[in-house]
Design goal:
100 residues; alpha+beta; four-stranded antiparallel beta sheet
Length: 100
Amino acid sequence: MRAEGTLAALVEQAFGAGRELLITLSAAPSLEAVALLERERLTAATDARSFSGPLTGGLEALSALGRRLAEAGLPVAEMRIREPGLRGVFFRVAGRELEP
């Protein structure tokens, strides 16, 4: 067991007051690009092109992140924001997605 508590407490521990950010790239990133994504607190999700992590600071932070990724030459196909739930908490704690 890695975490225990109510859903609200677990979400707060994993994401704070932020939301969950999901990014899908057009192509698999290089090792240098993965390092950049990890510095942005994004970790590999379901496949080599998908990353997720907490987003704090609202839309201004999302815009700034988009600029940094573009400047690094990362081909972003999609960026989504969602309210974190049990799936996101599981991924943050276990380091992998829930089985479908």
